[in-house]
Every structure is written in structure tokens, then in C-alpha cells.
Write a structure and sequence with these properties.
Shape of chain A: elongated
Oligomer: homodimer
Number of strands of chain A: 2
Structural class of chain A: mainly alpha
CATH class of the largest domain in chain A: Mainly Alpha
Largest sheet of chain A: 2 strands, antiparallel
Number of domains of chain A: 2
Distance between the termini of chain A: 22 Å
Strand order of the largest sheet of chain A: 1-2
Order of helices and strands of chain A: HHHEEHHH
Strand content of chain A: 5-15%
CATH architecture of the largest domain in chain A: Orthogonal Bundle
CATH topology of the largest domain in chain A: Arc Repressor Mutant, subunit A
Radius of gyration of chain A: 18 Å
Chain lengths: 124, 124
DNA sequence: ACAACTGTACTAACACAACTAGTACGGTTA
DNA sequence: TAACCGTACTAGTTGTGTTAGTACAGTTGT
């Protein structure tokens, strides 16, 4: 479910947050789905419970999950919208990276070819 | 010349490296140009000389600058090619971000529009 | 009621990397 | 010779991610 890279510079709790966002985005996790419990996930990933909790607290703060004390955490109703909005905001990153590629000598045609390929493979 | 964000999670020395790469890429810095001295830059940016040195050592190791003891550091002859190659390698990042945008509901047309705009403004 | 879950709260300590501080050495230039 | 240049090294600080351990309260199913 989650793959953690302990050697990464990105903190474990952020890796978890990011992977939840991704899975919601691509539809693997859906509204109402139950998240693994803090303890079970901490055991599965061999990560301290506090670190998992930190990720869950932040996910709750962002509104991606809803936490019911004693019951567990669940993917919120508007989780999909939230990650969708966030991703759409990344169109600026797109501008940035294309600019860099342009300076590096990558032609417009190559970039567009890449765009075509991606959209062919996604087919939402 | 350089803008450092002390609050950033990216280490200062990496920020310097990245900015040198960028300036070489867009042609602001050219082969043979003299780099500011370790000491002068450390004063200008109010950064410890060791941190600047760390950036310069790494830039030298990567072949982006050539260091002549007693004289100073200079942008290397093949610096432009080096950063060009590196940036061209980022076409994978492009795939990644476009995939995310696709899932987020951004249409292919919007993405291509962005590509067109960038290439119009760059005009190398 | 009770055991076994759930999330939450808190303090203390560890580990690592970035960064700073200070000093010293050798080459180059005017 | 003075004033630059890069380099080297040790020591110490700082911040933050992470761990460790414990404790408390709500929910579930038997």
C-alpha cells in the first residue's frame, strides 16, 4: 500500500501524505475508505507510531481524511476534489520545467510528443 | 546574482549550485566567466565561507567550474553542454507532472496551450 | 462488563545533516 | 610584501525528523 524510502531526504511522514494524495488522485482510494490504523501501519512499515500519527494529523488538518476517535480514519467526502485542486495548481511547475527544457534545447515538438503519449496512456 | 532562502528545506549550498546551473543554462553565465570568490560571496550573502566552498567544490567535481588555486574559479568550457544534458534528462519529470495533471482533470488542450505559451516567450 | 481495538497527548532523547566558527597553509598578483 | 585567491581541518551549534515509552479516552464485539 505504501512504500517508504528511509534514505530519502523527504521525511517519512511527508512520503505517507504524498502517497495518500496520489492514491486518492488516481482513484485507488475513495471517499469513505478506511485508512489503516496508526498502529497497524506503523507495524507494517516498521515505522514509529508517532510518525504515522504525524502524517494522519496533517492529512486530517488538510481535510483529506476524517478521524473518528475510537473508530479510525476514513478518506473524506471531498478528498478527491481537494487533491484535484492541488494538482491543478501545479500547472505552474509545468511552465517551469518546460522553460528549462526549452533552454536545454528540447524542441517544442518533442515536448508535445510527450504530452500526447501521456494522455494516450492515461485515458481517464 | 544569487538569491538564498535560509528558510528553505533545500540546503544553501545546493541552492547556490542550482542557481549557477540555471544561469549557465539560460546563458547569463558563460564559459570563462569568473565566479565570485568564496570569501566575497560569503560576505555578500552573509553565509559562512565553508558553505560557499562546499558549493564550489561540488560544482568543480561536476565539471561546471574550473578552479585555479590562487586565481579563482571560472565557468568551465563545457559547462553549457553539461547543464544542457542534465536538463534534457528531466523529460521524465515532465512525464510525471503531466500524468498528475491528467488525473487532476486538466485537459490535453490546456497542457499544450501551456507548452505553446512557454515556447513563444522563450524564443531562444 | 470486559478485552481488544481505535485515535490522541505528552515528555525525553536520539540521529543526522546543514551550517557556523576559527584557524592555518600554500599559490598568485600587483 | 601585502592582499588577494582556493583549500583543509577540527569543533561546536542548530534544527528537525524520528524514536521510545507511557498514559488517557472513545468504540466495538462478545
Amino acid at each position: 500500500m505504501f512504500v517508504i524510502d528511509l534514505m530519502s531526504r523527504i521525511p517519512v511522514y511527508e512520503q505517507i501524505i504524498k502517497q495518500v494524495e496520489e492514491q486518492v488522485l488516481i482513484g485507488v482510494m475513495k471517499s469513505g475508505d478506511k485508512m489503516p490504523s496508526v498502529r497497524s501501519l506503523s507495524i507494517k512499515l516498521s515505522i514509529n507510531p508517532n510518525t504515522i500519527q504525524k502524517a494522519y494529523t496533517e492529512l486530517d488538518r488538510r481535510g483529506l481524511i476524517v478521524t473518528v476517535p475510537g473508530k479510525g480514519s476514513f478518506v473524506s467526502d471531498n478528498a478527491t476534489e481537494l487533491v484535484g485542486e492541488k494538482s491543478r495548481g501545479k500547472i505552474e511547475n509545468l511552465t517551469e520545467i518546460i522553460t528549462e527544457l526549452a533552454y536545454a534545447g528540447v524542441t517544442k515538438e518533442e515536448v508535445i510528443e510527450t504530452v500526447e503519449t501521456v494522455y494516450k496512456n492515461v485515458e481517464v
